[in-house]
Protein: Pyridoxamine 5'-phosphate oxidase
Organism: Hydrococcus rivularis NIES-593
Amino acid sequence: MSLAPWRSPLSRALHLNRSQPYSRYLQLATVRKDGRPANRTVVFRGFLEGSNQLQIVTDSRSEKVSQIEERPWGEACWYFTKTREQFRLLGNLTVITVDYPDESLQKARRLVWQQLSDGARSQFAWPDPGQKRVEKASAFSLPPPLPNEPLANFCLLLLAPERVEHLELRGEPQNRWQYDLDDSQIWIARSLNP
Amino acid sequence: MSLAPWRSPLSRALHLNRSQPYSRYLQLATVRKDGRPANRTVVFRGFLEGSNQLQIVTDSRSEKVSQIEERPWGEACWYFTKTREQFRLLGNLTVITVDYPDESLQKARRLVWQQLSDGARSQFAWPDPGQKRVEKASAFSLPPPLPNEPLANFCLLLLAPERVEHLELRGEPQNRWQYDLDDSQIWIARSLNP
């Protein structure tokens, strides 16, 4: 596999905005079971090795996992505040659950778990997200799970972009490019009106 | 009409993050004609007077307008970097086009146009957004349109939330609330597990 052509401007944006921890936060849109959109902030956890797929983590108990099971499509919107540029990444979503039958992806799932902070790992031991608040504070202050083996509800979420749009607000006028993966799996780049 | 209960924490977030111009940027998800999600950054232009509807501006030539005509639903995701909190606002979208038959909403459309900067107004005079790039730089350097009357392709986009979720990452543990508009148009607030 070769690096997609949008990887280079994205790497540049990540580098130039690295002083801001939230430069790794992006908004992921999916579609709900009732056909309405859903949208939430997620954290970029690097690319899956040897691929152009973005790694995100999620909890099997979260709504997005059941949304993705039904409609495996997402668009991420990633705005970099310092360089004032936006990437939109539309593509297929795959949830690597504890019983996903692919050993190399299970390895990636374990690796991302190991790279999380104790704080991030702890959230997977918290009570059911999105349910009525458990008022007992102790439910949220358990010892952090061990880094060697992920909890069963920990999932690796992969976004495989098929179309990427890059908008630079700083241009005069603004610059906008679109990258599309064609049927032969080749990326086609075009310059568009902003 | 009374202020929805989520208006107060949202006003507070806007106030505390006001030093950052991008605190008024949010990501709006819609659904494409093919059923896949779309997601892009938009700018918050205040609330429609006497309502809980968020004002956004858009171009009738943009893809989101045709998406909304078919599926009038959106979820905005608004992350405030300084206070580390997120609002998700799910609701109905209405596009106030030049021929929308409601004089008070046309008045709101004109008012928002007048409040835009010359630079923002100019974009509505640019060549078709999302089409093959017009290379002639002069196409993007026209004199700005007059503030008194909006260009015909200028639209006011209204988001009327029915469900709002507020997540504070700074809590120990995090705090998460959900506000739902019930059948009697009353907001019900609940505290949820983060």
The helical segments of chain A are 7-16, 63-70, 103-115, 118-122. The two ends of chain A are 31 Å apart (CA to CA). Chain A has one domain: 7-126+138-192. Chain A has four helices and eight strands.
